[in-house]
Amino acid sequence: FAPTGSPSQLSWAAISAALASGAVTVTTVGSPNTGGSGNITITAASPAMNSANNLTLYALGELTINSGGTVVNYGAGDLKLQGLSGVAINANVTITGSLSLTGPVTLAGC
């Protein structure tokens, strides 16, 4: 995925399809300069995934899961959420694998 503007959008369908082939890392670090803030914001609920592969979301800025932006994986894959400026979880996260949070963490509305 190469962003073409700010803000860029990446669908859960694209992430889910990539997870079918292996581990996935979505990062704003090292991205082309499109005037973005380096944040990752999840605004839509993920499909009920069933992946054994790991998903890493790594934001140079803040990583936020907004209310209504749930993340669901019933497979054994781990979820790694990293935000250098912070990680804010304002929705449910349902996983069978491990959950790793890196950065100043705020939990609300979970």
**Element order: H for helix, E for strand:** HEEEEEEEEEE
Q: What composes the largest sheet?
A: 4 strands, parallel
Q: Could you say which structural class the secondary elements and strand pairing correspond to?
A: mainly beta
Structural shape: globular
Radius of gyration: 13 Å
What would you note in describing this structure?
This protein has 110 residues and is mostly beta strands. The chain is built from 1 helix and 10 strands. The strands form 3 sheets. A 4-stranded parallel β-sheet has the order 1-3-6-9, covered by helices on one side. A 4-stranded parallel β-sheet has the order 2-4-7-10, with no helix packed on it. The relative contact order is 0.19. The mean pLDDT is 87.
Quick recap:
This protein has 110 residues and is mainly beta. It contains 1 helix and 10 strands, in the order H-E-E-E-E-E-E-E-E-E-E.
Keywords:
110 residues; mainly beta; four-stranded parallel beta sheet; globular
What layout of secondary structure does this protein have?
Blueprint: H1 12-19, E1 24-27, E2 40-42, E3 55-59, E4 62-65, E5 71-73, E6 79-83, E7 86-89, E8 93-95, E9 99-102, E10 105-107
